Amino acid sequence: DVRVLMLSTRIVSVVRQLLQMYRVRLCKAGYGPYEGGNTPSSGLVGAYLLVQLCKSVTAYGFGFPGEAQGKLTTGYHYYRMWGARS
Length: 86
Prior knowledge:
About 35% of the residues lie in helices and about 0% in strands. It is built from two helices and no strands. The longest helix has 20 residues.
C-alpha cells in the first residue's frame, strides 16, 4: 500500500516562521547576522512534517565533522562538492 499526502502551503509557512524565530535567537546569542534566504529547505520542511506525523524521528547526516567545534572551514553546497557534476 502507498499513502500519498499533499503538502499544504500552510506547513511551509509555519516552518518559515520557525526558521525566522531561530535566526533571531541566533543573532541575539551573537551568531549573526544571518544573510541566507527566507525560504526553508525541503529537508527542513520534511523534518518538521515527520516530527508532526511520527512517534519518533531520528535525523542523521545534518552537519559535518568539526562543525560543532568551529573547525568547518569551507562552505557547503550539495551541488558544488563531493563529486557533484560541474
